[in-house]
């Protein structure tokens, strides 16, 4: 049957809204055997009764249908013969994932606006007071530093947002190469040395040269963000251990710290955009809340696996396993990463 290979669900209803038959995809979308006879109209999905009635009256209509926690783009078309409606064809397309992604994108836009507005308000408020001559001469350096700090925070934020949107678009223009992860870890550790010293955290690197097929800039971003966090969420006198190892099937990168750790309920959520366990602490130490979502995105693009284990008060360990001996980037969908 032609309809059996379709991904859209097709349901045939008689002119009283009773199900006559459905194709394989519809049975799969709706759950085989659960919706037969009048069960579809009786399912209680809001708006469904009126939707089918419109088709019974000869009107074609569309709606987004919610059934059992999933969303379907539904289209009902009357079948007219001899001037009378003899049946209804219902087309169903599962749009649950698409809706979820769209919802998250809407939330992201709202978050971006909020995150940008806060430093802008501080900048504009401080600058206004200075312009009006309401700041004493001895307070001007403090006000200027505040403006400078907030402007820097905005730059970091905009840079991270641009990185994410570039990744969202699949980073198709980036150059793929065999990259020595150890050499990259060495460079990155060096660039973080001053930050680690200022935080009184010792940064240790160990391992051996190990090549992965990837985008140098993104791999560096992964190492940088993980080490930066391991330093930021540490305590004076603490340590960060950065390891690169070549194993039988993969190359592994581990960043382990002796820092504050992460409670179990936050462990998955910290990879969401703008999610921070302690928002004010993250802001104080210059966080944007986007670092780990960039890491997650870049890891997926490299078809690598990420594992996190953390004990509050003791520390956090993040391991990323890159597939070994890859020669091409293959196909990797990034559309569901949010
Ligand atoms: P931020 O810019 O806030 O650091 P990230 O996306 O890098 O944003 O991290 C999200 C949140 O995850 C942080 O605000 C922090 O609460 C938590 N976090 C990340 N890494 C660590 C770590 N190594 N130890 C403890 N908490 C961490």
List the main descriptive attributes of the protein structure presented here.
alpha+beta, five-stranded mixed beta sheet, extended, 338 residues, 40% helix
Report on this model:
There is one protein chain. The protein has 338 residues and is α+β, with helices and mostly antiparallel strands. Helices cover 40% and strands 25% of the residues. It has ten helices and twelve strands. It has helices at residues 24-30, 48-56, 96-131, 140-168, 181-191, 193-198, 216-232, 264-267, 279-284, 291-301, and strands at residues 9-14, 19-22, 61-67, 70-81, 84-94, 177-180, 202-207, 211-214, 239-246, 250-257, 305-311, 315-323. The strands form three sheets. A five-stranded antiparallel β-sheet has the order 2-1-5-4-3, with helices on both faces. A five-stranded mixed β-sheet has the order 7-9-10-12-11. Strands 6-8 form a two-stranded antiparallel sheet. A hairpin with a 4-residue loop joins strand 1 (9-14) and strand 2 (19-22). Helix 3 packs antiparallel against helix 4 (140-168) and helix 5 packs across helix 7. The longest helix has 36 residues, at 96-131. 29% of the residues are buried. The model has no long low-confidence stretch (mean pLDDT 90). The structure holds adenosine-5'-diphosphate.
**Proportion in helices:** 40-55%
Return the average pLDDT rounded to an integer: 90
Poorly predicted tracts of residues: none
Major beta-sheet overview: 5 strands, antiparallel
Multimeric state: single chain
Q: Tell me the number of strands.
A: 12
What is the topology, as strand order, of the major beta sheet? 2-1-5-4-3
Spatial shape = extended
Quickly count the helices. 10
Q: What is the H/E string?
A: EEHHEEEHHEHHEEHEEHHHEE
Question: Cα-atom Rg, whole angstroms?
Answer: 27 Å
Q: What distance lies between the first and last C-alpha atoms, to the nearest angstrom?
A: 38 Å
């Amino acid at each position: 049957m032609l309809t059996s290979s379709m991904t859209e669900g097709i349901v045939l209803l008689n002119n009283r809204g009773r199900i006559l038959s459905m194709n394989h995809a519809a049975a799969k979308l709706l759950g085989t055997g659960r919706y037969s006879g009048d069960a579809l109209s009786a399912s209680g999905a809001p708006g469904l009764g009126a939707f089918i009635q419109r088709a019974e009256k000869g009107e074609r209509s569309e709606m987004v249908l919610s059934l059992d926690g999933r969303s379907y783009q539904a289209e009902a078309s009357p079948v007219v013969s001899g001037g009378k409606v003899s049946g209804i064809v219902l087309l169903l397309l599962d749009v649950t994932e698409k809706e979820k992604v769209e919802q998250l994108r809407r939330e992201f836009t709202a978050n971006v606006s909020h995150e940008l507005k806060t430093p802008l308000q501080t900048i504009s408020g401080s600058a206004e007071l200075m312009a009006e001559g309401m700041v004493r001469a001895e307070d001007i350096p403090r006000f200027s530093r505040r403006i400078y700090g907030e402007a820097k925070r905005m730059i970091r934020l905009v840079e991270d947002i641009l990185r994410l949107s570039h990744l969202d678009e699949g980073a198709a223009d980036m150059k793929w190469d065999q990259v020595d992860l150890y050499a990259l870890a060495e460079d990155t550790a060096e660039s973080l040395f001053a930050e680690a010293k200022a935080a009184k955290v010792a940064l240790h690197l160990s391992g051996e040269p190990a090549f992965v097929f990837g985008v140098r800039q993104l791999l560096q971003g992964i190492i940088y963000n993980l080490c930066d966090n391991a330093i930021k969420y540490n305590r004076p006198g603490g340590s960060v251990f950065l390891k690169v190892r070549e194993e039988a099937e993969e190359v592994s990168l581990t960043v382990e710290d002796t820092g504050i750790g992460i409670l179990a309920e936050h462990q998955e959520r910290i990879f969401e955009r703008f999610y921070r366990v302690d928002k004010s602490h993250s802001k104080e130490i210059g966080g944007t809340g986007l670092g780990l979502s960039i890491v997650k995105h870049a890891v997926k693009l490299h078809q690598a696996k990420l594992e996190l284990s953390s004990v509050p008060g003791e520390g956090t360990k993040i391991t990323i396993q890159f597939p070994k001996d890859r020669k091409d980037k293959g196909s990797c969908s990034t559309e569901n990463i949010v």
